[in-house]
Design brief:
binds zinc ion; binds D-xylitol-5-phosphate; single chain; 20% strand; alpha/beta; 218 residues
């Protein structure tokens, strides 16, 4: 499978959301990455259900929802109904992670778990076979436009080993501070999906920037 680019809509122009969604539809991007923040799990509030509903209406690619919220369990069915294809919850927000993963799958979505920069890969050993995606946070969640944390490379290699050793078919996604400078090294370390927010939407030509990223990661 080729490596994937998931532009993060958090960095789009919300006053021109349909235009930016069409840009992603017509680009070489693979997924839409949608960041939902509750102001409790992370110190920021992004957007909620009505906005996701509007995005889903126009998005023609896989919708990858990244929940940065406490108690995600209570909204699993809601996100399925809103059109999420992949639902990623934070390890740090889920005391009964195994149950949460099963509930996401039972609602017909792919299940992902995100790890904060301080959370070691080893905490996923006993659920790795159940997961479709692990999102390694390469910044502290809550804001776009932060700088990439270099320790991420070590975590990507550790996760790649765990996935290969357990013969899991889970994808490794990297989220935060991804640019043309680190994209290739992340793929070399074992990543499959790169989320890019400000690097894409802050570019003079976002469509070309997506194309360049795709060419870089093959
Ligand atoms: C951060 C979000 C990211 C963010 C990435 O909490 O999870 O998806 O939009 O933005 P950039 O690519 O600008 O770091
Ligand atoms: Zn995200």
């Amino acid at each position: 499978m080729s490596n994937l680019i998931a532009p993060s809509i958090l960095a789009a122009d919300f006053a021109n959301l349909q235009r930016d969604i069409e840009m992603v539809n017509n680009s070489e991007a693979d997924w839409f990455h949608i960041d939902i923040m509750d102001g409790v799990f992370v110190p920021n509030i992004s957007f909620g259900m009505p906005v996701l509903k509007a995005i889903s209406k126009h998005a023609k690619k896989t919708i990858d929802v990244h929940l940065m919220i406490v108690n995600p369990d209570q909204y699993i069915q809601t996100f399925a109904d809103l059109g999420a294809n992949i639902l990623t919850v934070h390890y740090e927000a889920c005391p009964h992670l195994h149950r949460t993963i099963q509930a996401i799958k039972a609602a017909g979505m792919k299940a992902g778990v995100a790890l904060n920069p301080h959370t070691p890969i080893a905490v996923l050993e006993d659920v790795i076979k159940d997961l479709d995606l692990v999102c390694i946070m390469s910044v502290n969640p809550g804001f776009g436009g932060q700088s990439f944390i270099e320790n991420t490379y070590k975590k990507v290699s550790q996760l790649r080993h765990l996935i290969d050793f357990t013969e899991s078919d889970c994808l490794i996604e990297i989220d935060g501070g991804v640019t043309g400078k680190n994209a290739n090294a992340l793929i070399e370390a074992g990543a499959n999906v790169l989320v890019a927010g400000s690097y894409v939407f802050g570019a003079e030509n976002p469509t070309e920037t997506i194309e360049d990223l795709k060419n870089l990661i093959g």
